[in-house]
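STRUCTURE REQUEST FORM
Protein name: Methyltransferase
Source organism: Actinidia rufa
Requested output: structure tokens
Priority: standard
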Amino acid sequence: MTSVTGLNNNEYQIARGKALNRNVGVDKTCDFVKADFMKMPFPDNSFDAVYAIEATCHAPDAVGCYKEIYRVLKPGQCFAAYEWCMTNSYDSHNKEHQKIKAEIELGNGLPDIRVTGQCLEALKQAGFEVIWEKDLAADSPIPWYLPLDKSSFSLSSFRLTAVGRLVTRNMVMALEYVGLAPKGSQRVQAFLEKAAEGLVDGGKKDIFTPMYFFLARKPHLE
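Status: completed
Returned output:
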């Protein structure tokens, strides 16, 4: 029987995942393990496939993370992932680019965001064969950052518009003042706003992508 094992280090997210699995009736075949993806509690050559969506970008060491994935993957099988990356248009000496990158890192809890080429090199150092890779944002007919762009208005994304953010900001302030929101909520809300601005600016300047996809394979044993 096919089964899926989710890996997460956050108890709340695991509880939510298990509840959602029960709701759709897949809790018998889908489960979660609380662990660190830099040191997974699984034997070598355990899995038929591994995928990660906007997850391994949080790894402090890409090579170490990919090596651990390589270890638990069976020979001849594949690892697919979406990574958050800086593109080749990113200039590490450009102060505006540096500011945008820092805003994204701070608001999303990321270490030093890697350039796409660094991800590829890390995969190769870990032992993978890269089958296919592409920044899928490049061909997207709709900009990925549009829902976060406060200059774009729609009823579904009202809270992300300039007016919506002002309303949210005042609500958080009021809730924190009366004690219904924990202390520090305003500060968190503020840097999340800055993160959204960084994401939009990074997308518009084509220096950041949340849609860098790759498919890599662990070679067969000789």
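Reviewer notes: The chain has one domain: 36-217. Residues 36 and 85 are 21 Å apart (CA to CA).
Form closed.
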